[in-house]
Prior knowledge:
Layout lengths: L9 H9 L11 H16 L7 H16 L11 E11 L3 E11 L4 E7 L9 H18 L7 E7 L7 E7 H20 L9 H4 L14 H8 L15 H30 L23 H12 L3 H5 L6 H12 L3 H11 L20 H10 L2
Parallel strand pairs: 3-4
Antiparallel strand pairs: 1-2, 2-3, 4-5
Helix pairs in contact: 1-4, 2-3, 4-5, 8-13, 11-12
Amino acid sequence: MSGRHHKYGPSTLDALSKCIRFKYDETQDEDAASEGTELHAAAETGNTAGLDDEQARCVDSARSYAEFLKFEDGADPADWEDLREVRLDLKDLTHGTADRVLVNRKLRRIHVVDYKFTRVENDHALQLRAYGAALVEKMLAESDGAGEWSVVMHVVAPRLANPTEREEAVGSLLLPGVRAEIEALYERIEDPFVEATPHEDLCRKCGRAGTCPKLRGVALAVAPSIGLPLPGTFDIDAATPRDRAIMQVLAGALVQLAEKWKKSNADAVAGGLEIPGFKLTTRSTGLRLAKANAAEFARRMEERHGLAAVDLLACANVAVNDVCDAIAMAKGMTAADAKEDLKTHDTDILSEGKSQFLSKEKRLSDLETLAMIANAN
């Protein structure tokens, strides 16, 4: 395994364990990624300045869960080493960063806690086991292998219906088991004959979805496989609640694939391919100004047209997160504190965007959800 050292981190291995051909699509929602980074930073420091009430509650809930672990089974909180953003290395296999680690050397007990601020149900079993195994390996090396360690792995996801998951293991069993599991996973990754496995969460985030031979049949094959017909109508306005439930499941599997198909077809026609019944149409989406060129553009507008900065701002949409970063740099504060300042003094002219979406009531796969719909009266 030495030649494969640290090829994938625990979270990537976790995804690959579900679908061996998964590759994260870098064009995914930047706002969601930015929020996740912001909430993890707040969970590390405890500083919720700049967060809205819902975000702050999520952070406080995650941190409180970890704090309560120090009192488990009558333990003395003073006996716990409380570590944040801990770099963990499972020798020759993987490395990553755990959000929070609690170590009690008297009890020879470890808690590893990973925060998830997603709104999408998923499991992260291998990622957590990899963190736990790396901690056991580290502790055994530090203590010359003396004594047994127990490790408890936790996922804290305050936005989900089931906000916590917990798995406990004996270190001497966890470590070799995880190492063998990851070794076997690397062998599967390198085997060109191992096919993709459609996965409802991963497919919509996968950069290979448009070319995946397995994905294209998922949505329409899954319903007949359990004897469930397709919706009685594809007219959403005329759909029954049952039809809408089926459509909701199918949409998650189809939307990513559909976008990939459309882009690939447009690129193919642009390259000279003829697709019967379609032609390539190009429409302008308007001139765009890259953020890096904003200062130079302002200078030119003032020089040629006499537009002062205030005139230019009247024409612009301002990215508030960029403003927070600029304030933080200028004032020597954190971006979170800068955001809190804006929320304190400028909410009369600022507004906060919201999104609404459906999420499953229970942690079920698409197949299980469709089966539940089929069996409902």
